[in-house]
Each structure stands twice: as C-alpha cells, then as structure tokens.
Design goal:
14 helices; alpha/beta; single chain
Length: about 400
C-alpha cells in the first residue's frame, strides 16, 4: 500500500539533493570547523557557505545568522537571552495565546523568574490585531514575540505591521518563523524583526539543526555556555553535516518560491473544497486567505480527532490533530480554544499539511477516503443522527 503523508507541518522528508550535499561531511570532510589545519578549514568553509545561504534566504547578513539545534533552541535563546540581558530596563514581555509551546513554555519559565507576560488574544481566524499589541505595551516592555505563521491552523500574522509598532516604541521583536521559512517570503528588514527562529526539518532539511537571526548590535545572553563557537555566542562543536544540509535545504526551498507555493496552494484549496462540499458540519480553522499554502485544518463535529487519525492511518494516510509536540496530550489544542472553539469541537480537529512532494492523485485519494471515514465514525456516534439537518456550532 502506498502511504500518503500529509503531516508536513510536523516534519518533511529530506530532499535527495540535501542528503547528497551532507554525505561527504560524515566521512571524507568530517573535520572540526574550529581546527586550524586543512581538514578543519574545509569544514569551516562549508559552515560559512551555509551561513551565507541562510542569510540570503531571509535578507540578512551572514554575520547575523547563528546555528542552533533547531527551532526550540532558537526560540529559547531569543526570548531568554534577550530578556535576561535587558532585565535592568524592564521585565514585561508581550506574546499571543496561540504560540508554539517552544515559546509559551519559555515565557512560563521566565514568569517563574519574576518576568511578566501579556498574552494578546486573536480573532476567530487566529489573527493578531497589531492594535492589541500596541495597547499591551507598557513602560517596562522589553520584548514582543509573535509567530510568523501558526503551526496548527496556518494563519499568517501581520508581522510587518507588528514590527513597525515594536520599532516605534524601541522594543525588540522576535518572530518564530519555523513554519514560514520555505513556505512564504521572509524578509527580516521589511518585517522589522530583531530576532527570527527557523528549523531545517520543516523545509526538507535534516532534523536537529536550525538557526537564529540576531540583528546586528543586539545584546543577547548565551543560552549554552562552553567553547567559543558561533562567535562566542553559542557553545558546542558545530553540527557540520546538519549545517550543510540546512544551507542546501533553504537554498532549494526558497528558489522559485512563489511558483512552488502557488502549486501547493492549488492542491490545498482543492482538498479544502473537497472536504467542505462532501462532509456536512465541518469548520475550516484558520484564516480563509491569509494562511500558509500547505495548511488545511478542519473541525469535524461528532467525531473524535484521535479516532479519525487512527482510521486514516489504517488507510495509509498520515495526518495529525495539531502540533506534533503535543501529540501525547489529551487536552484540546490551545490554539483552537483561543479562536473560540468549544472543547468538544476542538477535540474533533484534523490537520492535513502538504509539501512540494504532494501529488494530485494523493489529494484525490484523501477526498475520496476521508468522507467515508467520517460517515462511518458518525454512524457510531449517539450524538449524530443520520439524515437530520444539523447546524455547525
């Protein structure tokens, strides 16, 4: 049975060209980039080439890019590093109710250390109003952190507008762009961000490697102490092969980005239309137009999300009910609750996320299989009466 993979927001398959670029750095070019002999210098050259590729992809300079172990470390470093370095100016931070837990749990840890956090609400589509950010600013506000695009419902935030608010008030601005990089154009200058997190495995690169953009001149405390790697700001021997893979992946992902995004969005819209037309009482979660080109998130009334995922898996279709980082939790998605869904409907959520490797044939198969699975599950639900005219809500 050919399996259909539609959980690309959780992770993507590594591109074959990325793997080819990485392989020599496991065996023949394995030197430590901090060593001064020829093998080490070759490794250093590869690291710096990857750094330039990351910088080019987000319109930064190479000197502003620092390699990390992934998006979670980048988020932690950006928020903790800036907050602790500037605590003498204030201990108030602003974020939103729908951030990834890499941000939310980092903020919670800072709250335990005496910082205060204002969590700005979102509308029914998961969209942040920049005016609400403005209203939340206090004299002691030192950092604003708003994700570029939501990992569960795909809503793209007005980052340039929020960046302008932050800049006008002299407040540092961090964005978790883990889902955005490789999916939509990212420009740190037009976005007016000071810190930006990204992760390779979200755009067909390797797991375990990411980067943090730090605007030139920004003071940030280290998160990891040790050696002098990453210009004395992030200790630890560099993940050489991973960094090479990150550079190769981000270069591939951002080449002809508009064309690729358009192709994926066409498949996304076809899948949304197919689900909405074939299945009654389904709600599309996230903004109808300001959404990632690969994201489909729906709530199916009278169906448990876990049962839906298991039935899809039996048919060879991989999907999720939300963030892979919370898949072990029985609680409904904090994102879906934040946009106003009641618990029972939030529990019936389904996230289908595409990639450039997704085919029309796969979308057609899901459009055929998913309505049948939902119908079978609803037939077993005492809350759903077949044939009756229902209203979603």
């Amino acid at each position: 049975m050919n399996r259909i993979y539609l959980d690309n927001a959780a992770t993507t398959a590594m591109h074959e060209q990325v793997l080819e670029k990485m392989l020599p750095y496991f065996r023949s070019h394995y030197g430590n980039p901090s060593s001064i002999y020829a093998t080490g210098r070759d490794a250093r050259k590869a690291v710096e080439e990857a750094r330039r590729k990351v910088a080019n992809a987000i319109n930064a300079t190479a000197a502003e890019v620092y390699f990390t172990s992934g998006g979670t470390e980048s988020d932690n470093w950006a928020i903790k590093g800036y907050a602790t370095a500037h605590a003498n100016r204030g201990k108030h931070l602003i974020s939103t109710a729908i951030e990834h837990h890499a941000v939310l749990n980092t903020l919670e840890a800072l709250e335990g250390d005496g910082f205060e956090v204002s969590y700005v609400p979102v509308d029914e589509h998961g969209l942040v109003n920049p005016e609400d950010i403005q209203k939340a600013i206090r004299k002691d506000t030192i950092l604003i952190s708003v994700m570029a695009a939501n990992n569960e419902i795909g809503t793209i935030q007005p980052i340039p507008e929020i960046g302008r608010v932050a800049r006008e008030h002299g407040i540092a601005f961090h964005t978790d762009a883990v889902q955005a990089v490789g999916a939509i154009p990212v420009d740190v200058d037009s976005w007016q961000v000071d810190l930006l997190s990204l992760s390779a495995h979200k755009f067909h690169g390797p797991k375990g490697v990411g980067a943090l953009y730090i605007r030139k001149g920004l003071r940030l405390n280290p998160l990891i102490h040790g050696g002098a790697q990453e210009r004395n700001r992030r200790a630890g021997t560099e993940n050489l092969a991973g960094i090479v893979g990150l550079g190769a992946a981000i270069e591939l992902a951002t080449a002809q980005l508009a064309e690729k995004a358009g192709q994926i969005a066409a498949l996304r819209d076809d899948l949304i239309d197919g689900i909405m037309s074939a299945v009654p009482e389904v709600r599309l979660n996230g903004h109808p137009t300001l959404r990632l080109p690969n994201n489909v998130n729906v709530s199916v009334k009278y169906v448990e999300g876990e049962a839906l995922l298991l039935r899809l898996d039996l048919q060879g279709i991989a999907a999720s009910s939300g963030s892979a980082c919370t898949s072990g939790s029985l609680d409904p998605s904090h994102v879906l609750l934040a946009i106003g869904l009641p618990h029972e409907i939030a529990h019936g959520s389904l996230r289908l996320t595409l990639s450039q490797e997704t085919t029309q044939e796969e979308i057609n198969a899901v459009k055929t299989e998913l309505p049948r699975i939902i119908s079978n599950l609803r037939a077993m639900s005492p809350l759903y009466e077949q044939g009756e005219d229902h209203v979603f809500g």
